[in-house]
Write a structure and sequence with these properties.
Elements (H helix, E strand, L loop, with lengths): L1 E8 L2 E11 L5 E5 L5 E4 L5 E6 L6 E9 L5 E4 L3 E2 L4 E2 L4 E11 L4 E6 L4
Parallel strand pairs: 2-4, 3-5, 4-6, 5-7, 8-11
Antiparallel strand pairs: 1-2, 6-10, 7-9, 10-11
């Protein structure tokens, strides 16, 4: 099942569909941006997020879901410029959404929600 996005350019709007890619929890979690631009993760421990195959101008969305068992700290590797780590908290069924933009070598954080 995919998500729909909306892109508005000068004088026109384009609706597009993107696949949701589920990441596997582990001590190191790899985002491969050649597979898509929307990723989900339910952490199972403290984890380090890495990224590869960056495309300049690509917007990458990371949706983090909490399991409610423990609080986990997510750290972003050197391929990211972020506002810092993310502590998930121990509340069940909470969601964080982070967005990044790529310059082809680094993902820059452009937004982050609090737990929803």
């Amino acid at each position: 099942m995919g998500n729909y996005g909306f892109h508005s350019g000068v004088g026109h709007a384009v609706r597009y569909k993107t696949k949701l890619f589920e990441l596997t929890a582990g001590s190191t979690v790899a985002i491969d941006t050649s597979k898509g631009s929307v990723f989900t993760l339910t952490p199972a421990q403290a984890e380090t997020i890495t990224a590869s195959n960056l495309i300049a101008g690509q917007i990458v969305t990371l949706i983090i879901a909490t399991s409610g068992t423990s609080t986990y700290t997510l750290t972003f590797s050197t391929g990211f410029k972020t506002t810092g780590t993310l502590a998930t908290g121990s509340a069940d069924a909470k969601t964080f959404v982070l967005q990044f933009i790529s310059d082809g070598s680094t993902l820059y954080e452009i937004s982050r929600t609090t737990a929803m």
